[in-house]
From TrEMBL:
Residue ranges of domain FMN hydroxy acid dehydrogenase in the record: 47-341
Keywords: Flavoprotein, FMN, Oxidoreductase
Protein name, as recorded: L-lactate oxidase
Family according to the record: Belongs to the FMN-dependent alpha-hydroxy acid dehydrogenase family.
Top-level taxon of origin: Bacteria
Listed InterPro entries: Aldolase_TIM, Alpha-hydoxy_acid_DH_FMN, FMN-dep_DH, FMN_HAD
Positions annotated to bind glyoxylate: 239
Organism, scientific name: Porcincola intestinalis
Length: 346
């Protein structure tokens, strides 16, 4: 199977909102689904993608000729690439009823492990979603990261019991999901957390804790104060607040504020291995990619996940080689083209 064939196959069973576009940039689906840019004018997902395209990299082949090492250490696990499949929920509602969350996570978690990376799994108002996600992780020996919504403490205790049974090596919470329309006014309640409340949750989890949905330096420092081991710079694909900056625009300052004290991951519009390289150069340790993995599962199941992962990994390795770096640790700001007004006029 080629990537073109994967997309063609996905188009037969995905939608009607998602179009399985050659590049998932949020333009074709707009704000027609609770996904790309669903809030307001629906431009955040588009801006997420376009911001990465404005970042330019430096070509440099006067360097040692060796194969790049794309390996990444993540809480004691060695990943083939600094790439994770992002958490996605309600796939049957947004992407077509060929799959439900249970079957989707079963395919995704297993296939990511076989591809040498790991998947974040989603959560939802249906309790069976978390049960199935953690069961899929347990079946792979804990090779996945369950992501829980910002529920009340009693509900989180139930969720964390499932997380513990899964044997996962870390757990995440998408705190920005407090802004999702379907979580408003629910019982059990879900919502934003204070630093103190988040600290209690981190201790309750009993595993390396990842806070997803950080978009400011203050948010990163608050997550650090609460005891989080990592953050994910994310605006939830534009689903929770209209008119936010893109993740590429805020990543550098956030990474500068907490780099070395916690891991920094980023998502939002990252669609190629070149984009992954740019994210690492701006200070991220790794990236999450969500919607293209949905297309991969719908279009090719396990084979599709492997195909997409290897495509991204090869693009990353090729970029590293052409930019004169042989390991992820060598990717830095000097890998980026940062024009100075003395030489360049726009």
């Amino acid at each position: 199977m080629t990537y073109k064939e994967l997309l063609e196959q996905a188009r037969t069973c995905i939608g009607p909102h998602c179009k399985a576009c050659p590049v998932c940039n949020g333009k074709a689906c707009g704000n027609t689904m609770p996904g790309p840019g669903a809030k307001g004018v629906g431009d955040v997902a588009i801006r997420n993608y376009e911001a990465w395209q404005k970042v330019r990299i430096n070509l440099n082949t006067i360097a040692e000729n060796k194969e790049p090492d794309t390996g990444f250490d993540f809480f004691g696990k060695r990943m083939k690439y600094p790439i994770f499949a992002g958490p996605v929920g309600a796939v049957n509602l947004h992407y077509g009823d060929k799959l439900d969350d249970i079957r989707y996570n079963d395919i995704l978690v297993r296939a990511c492990r076989e591809a040498g990376i790991a998947a974040f799994t989603g959560d939802g108002t249906n309790a069976e979603v978390m049960k199935a996600a953690t069961a899929a992780i347990r079946a792979t020996g804990g090779a996945g990261i369950p992501t829980v919504k910002p529920w009340d403490v009693d509900t989180l205790k139930e969720k964390f019991a499932l997380v513990k049974e899964s044997g996962s090596f870390a757990v995440a919470m998408d705190v920005d999901a407090a802004g999702l329309p379907f979580l408003q006014g629910l019982q059990p309640p879900a919502g934003s957390k204070t630093v103190e409340e988040l600290g209690e949750i981190v201790r309750m989890a009993g595993k390396p804790f990842i806070v997803k949905g950080v978009m400011t330096v203050k948010g990163a420092l608050d997550a650090k104060a609460a005891g989080a081991s990592a953050i994910i710079v994310s605006n939830h694909g534009g689903r929770v607040l209209d008119q936010t900056p893109s993740t590429a625009e805020v990543l550098e300052q956030i990474a500068d504020a907490v780099k070395g004290s916690m891991l920094v991951l980023v998502d939002g519009g990252i669609r190629s291995g070149v984009d992954v390289f740019k994210a690492l150069a701006l200070g991220a340790d790794a990236v999450l990619i969500a919607r293209p993995y949905v297309t991969a599962v719908y279009g090719g199941a396990e084979e599709g996940v492997k195909l997409l992962t290897e495509k991204l990994g090869k693009e990353l390795a090729d970029t590293m080689k052409m930019c004169g770096v042989s390991s992820l640790s060598q990717i830095g700001r000097d890998s980026l083209f940062l024009p100075q007004s003395r030489y360049v006029r726009f």
